[in-house]
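Thanks for the sequence, V.! I ran IS30 family transposase right away. Repeating your input here for the record:
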Amino acid sequence: MKRAKRIFTQDERDLVFTLWKQGTGFSDIGRVLDAAPGTVFTALRESGGIKPKPRIRNKQHLTLAEREEIRVALSAKMSLREIAVMLKRSPSTISREVSRNRGRRYYKAVDADNRAKRMAKRPKLGQLEINKVLRKLVMSKLELKWSPEQIAGWLRVEYPCTPFMHVSYETIYKSIYVRSKAVIHFSFAQHLRRSHPMRHSRYHRRSGDRTFTTIVNGLSIRERDEDIENRASLGHWEGDLVSGSKNTHIATLVDRKARFTILLKLAGKDAESVYRALLKIFKQMPAEYRKSLTWDRGMELAKHADLTKEIGIPVYFCDPQSPWQRGTNENTNSLVRQYFPRKTDLS
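Predicted structure:
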């Protein structure tokens, strides 16, 4: 027997997006709502995993209660001016309301209110919908594997005095992810760094991912100075490993302020190899350019205390399962992956 299509209520849809934003997967959301994972995926897909903004009626518009008052007053043979005085509205407002909803004789409050809701659906067209030249230019850059951030920045440099050729990177992301608008075909998501078919929460975690390991005597990222958090000065680095085929690895270091990036070839991903590579590169830097290092909780940096003792650089570690806390390095690694895809021999 064919299973009936599940249609979510507005409250259920709100719950779907809330759970998705918290990092809950399709299957877990489906268990909460007693729905198939595919149904949850479909509900999220149309808006690209981005929760639509709730519609809010303008306070100046007639309410359903006022329309009921109009209906009752019309039945009582009251004039339009008398109705306007009673509701403290302009006579022209009442006149237009009655005339556009089948006149005095056939006016119905519920039908008039539903019609007003339908007519209010006039979404403002986005920059990429209006400007075809800009849309084609953005699409061509996406095909070249440019990120939306790179495209938005390049447009402002290339067309400094032409505002209609500017677009924010968030608009580009939404144009790809939100399928219902069909501004840029969703297949262009494959050109993005992470190739996600929809927007994922920063807390999103696939089942089967490895659990975190314990770093002994590590400084928490929450102990970082405000100067580091605000990117006020140079010398604060974020780092991670990028792995390739045949057990080959490189380490990436990114300065939080300048975004200057260093790639280090590693003999292996063991703690000793990573320690020696980091020690060598940091010793080549002036002391003012090696103020701190932030890493994930990988055991490759188990010798962080030795690094601190040798050159005096404090090493901070992210919270478990929180790679977004090193967002600069994560984005850089995605860029590195563009040139060194998975299964590339990094030797």
